[in-house]
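Give me the 3D structure for 2216_t:CDS:1.
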Amino acid sequence: MFSTYRHLERRTGKSGTPRLDYLQELVDEYQNTSDKEAKYQVLANLANFAYDPINYDWLWELNVVDLFLDTLTESDEKLKEFGLGGLCNLCLGY
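Predicted structure for 2216_t:CDS:1 (94 residues):
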């Protein structure tokens, strides 16, 4: 299901974390953790966010596209898979 800004506002509530800030937290966590399982989970989450067009501008702003591209040079096949999935999801909008 694709989101609307109104839907995001309802889900986030007045005291929730705005989507851009949440995505930034995910990027920071991915870049700062050395735990492989955490990297998989965060990268998979970012790839899932790339599926919804409402997130495209934020993901581009946060250079998540570069993050996905960087995973393609990793030796870890799971990171490559999630990075490629994120790129594929983003391609739907551009």
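The longest helix spans residues 77-91. Let me know if you want a second pass.
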